[in-house]
C-alpha cells in the first residue's frame, strides 16, 4: 500500500480485485452493521443518528465504531457518511458502476480526523464476474 506522509497528515491507497460481482461487493461495503463480521479490526458498531440497523446508508448516516489498533489499543471513532456517488452514464462508466462511499471519522479523543473513500468498480479485464475495491485513506492530526 503506497503511503504518503507529510506534516499535514498521512494518506494511503489500495486496490484489490475480488472474485465476486460488483453488487455483492457493494452490499458488503455499505452494510455497516456487519462491519464487525467483515472488518477484522472493528469490534462493534452503534448507529447514533436514530436510524435502525439495516437501514440503507445516506449522506448524514452516523455511527460509532470501536476498533482494535496495533499494540492492543482500542479507539472509538464517530463515522459520518459524506457522499454516495453512483455512475451517471457519463465519464466512461457503464451500468451502475463505479459507485463510491465517502465517510469521515473523528476519534473520541479528538486527536485526528480521517476520510475514507471506498470505490467499487468492474474488473472486467481480469474476470468478467469480478469487481475491484479501491480504498483511499487520509488521516489528519487535530490541532
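^ C-alpha cells above, recovered residues below v
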Amino acid at each position: 500500500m503506497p503511503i504518503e506522509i507529510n506534516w499535514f497528515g498521512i494518506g494511503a491507497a489500495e486496490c484489490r480485485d475480488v472474485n465476486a460481482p460488483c453488487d455483492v461487493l457493494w452490499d458488503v461495503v455499505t452494510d455497516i452493521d456487519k462491519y464487525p463480521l467483515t472488518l477484522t479490526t472493528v469490534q462493534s458498531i452503534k448507529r447514533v443518528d436514530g436510524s435502525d440497523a439495516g437501514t440503507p446508508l445516506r449522506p448524514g448516516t452516523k455511527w460509532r465504531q470501536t476498533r482494535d489498533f496495533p499494540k492492543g489499543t482500542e479507539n472509538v471513532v464517530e463515522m459520518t457518511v459524506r457522499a454516495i456517488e453512483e455512475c451517471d452514464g457519463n465519464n466512461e462508466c457503464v451500468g451502475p458502476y463505479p459507485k463510491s462511499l465517502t465517510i469521515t471519522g473523528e476519534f473520541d479523543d479528538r486527536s485526528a480526523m480521517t476520510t475514507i473513500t471506498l470505490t467499487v468498480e468492474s474488473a472486467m479485464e481480469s474476470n468478467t464476474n469480478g469487481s475491484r475495491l479501491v480504498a483511499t485513506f487520509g488521516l489528519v492530526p487535530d490541532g
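The two ends are 27 Å apart (CA to CA).
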